[in-house]
Design goal:
heterodimer; A: alpha+beta; Alpha-Beta Plaits; two-stranded antiparallel ribbon; 2 helices; 4 strands; globular; B: Rossmann fold; eight-stranded mixed β-sheet; two-stranded antiparallel sheet
Chain lengths: ~100, ~300
């Protein structure tokens, strides 16, 4: 009897990082780290999720991972202190004369 | 198992602004990853289990459109037969079509046998994966590709199926509705649900940006308006008794919910539109009366 090849029905785990969805939208979210109060609303609502807490100058602030941010504006709308801005990506900034 | 940041994502293929990833993420976070996920066919399956790009950091099975309830029941029976306790909860994620139309047979069987399963239906109110076809949970008046708006028809005729009522009628220990606009409420309901032994049903309202015709940034706003107008009441049944509802402090008219969605915009021009809006307002009023959403006096 020869060897039997078994194909698993599921794909291997922890491969999500391969699909960089950050290039989908025309904008990225950016957190104003001075305004951020680390309330966690954006982290709760981010559908990706691509926002996480980082330590900066002994202060906990949210930071967006632009590798995966699709630019859906949800964090922008739920932020209670308007600390999140949507930045247009460089390649979409066109000069109109 | 390296490079896992959360139990679901990042790097899935859902549209920007999609509602259900929020519900899935919050549920798995609340269960701390102790879950065996069964997923029926639908948007969630398509965006999360592409070949070689698995998003799930928990055990996951996708079988067919119609048998999520049966598969979950089988997993529960197998775990019990093997004596594997406290390894995790069997959780089903299914769309509204898989729950209310195609899979309702196996769902009913699962409820009947009272398997220890948490069934979560994410309700985006149509078959959004294949491009917005009407399902049993589509609200009246919504324009879909199978109920297009024309001179005669103003979108879907008939009512939205009462899945909460159907689940309660099976006599299962825990039935609740939640919304992605209220994540703390959803978290509490998942925590409460897993305290019960037996079948649990959770209905989660999750807007669809393309099907509903809303901007991605309005997802949370629209989900909140559905609750605040009374069209989507947040209720909780334990052992067949209504124990908690989310009270509405100041109820809004249904027009506020309808006017920001493309699938309802014809209602403000169509000759039959006014009648449908009245019907929707009546449904909201009935919900308020039935569940006591407003404080008397």
């Amino acid at each position: 009897m020869g060897k039997v090849k078994i194909y698993l029905g599921a794909s291997s785990p922890a491969k999500t990082s391969e699909m960089k969805t950050g290039d989908w939208g025309t904008e990225w979210a950016k957190v104003d780290e001075d305004k951020c109060i680390a309330c966690g609303r954006c982290i709760t609502f981010c559908p990706e999720p691509c926002i996480e807490y980082v330590e900066k100058n002994d202060k906990k602030v949210a930071r967006v991972d632009t590798d995966y941010c699709k630019g859906c504006w949800i964090c922008f709308t739920v932020c209670p202190v308007d600390a999140i801005k949507m930045e247009t990506k460089e390649i979409y900034k066109l000069e109109v004369c | 198992m390296n490079d896992i940041r959360s139990y679901f994502g990042p790097g899935h293929g859902a549209c920007p602004g999609c509602g259900f990833p929020i519900a899935v993420k919050i549920t798995l976070e609340t269960l701390e990853g102790k879950a065996f996920v069964v997923n029926s066919t639908g948007c969630l399956e398509i965006v999360s289990s592409m070949y070689g790009r698995n998003v799930w950091a928990v055990p996951y099975i996708h079988s067919l459109f119609e048998n999520a309830g049966a598969v979950a029941g089988g997993i529960d029976a197998a775990l019990k037969a093997l004596g594997r306790k406290n390894e995790g909860h069997v959780v089903v994620f299914a769309g509204d079509g898989a729950t209310a139309d195609i899979g309702i047979g196996t769902l009913s069987g699962m409820f009947d046998r009272n398997h220890d399963v948490l069934y979560i239906c994410y309700d985006n109110e149509a078959y959004q994966n294949t491009g917005n076809q009407q399902s049993g949970l589509t609200p009246p008046g919504a324009s879909t590709t199978t109920t297009p708006v024309g001179d005669l028809l103003p979108g879907k005729m008939g009512r939205k199926k009462d899945m909460i009522g159907i689940a309660v009628a099976h006599g299962i220990p825990y039935v609740a509705s939640a919304s992605i606009a209220f994540p703390n409420d959803l978290r509490r309901k998942v925590k409460r649900a897993i305290e019960f032994e037996g079948a649990k049903y959770l209905h989660v309202h999750a807007p669809c940006v393309t099907g509903w015709g809303i901007d991605g940034k309005l997802t949370v706003e629209v989900a909140r308006l559905a609750v605040e107008t009374g069209l989507y009441p947040l209720v909780e049944y334990e052992n067949g008794r209504l124990v908690r509802v989310m009270k509405l402090k100041k109820r809004k008219p249904v027009e506020e919910y309808l006017k920001i969605q493309r699938r309802f915009r014809h209602l403000f021009k169509h000759p039959l539109g006014e009648k449908i809006i009245k019907e929707l307002q009546q449904i909201a009023d009935e919900n308020v009366k039935r569940y006591g959403l407003e404080d008397e006096g």
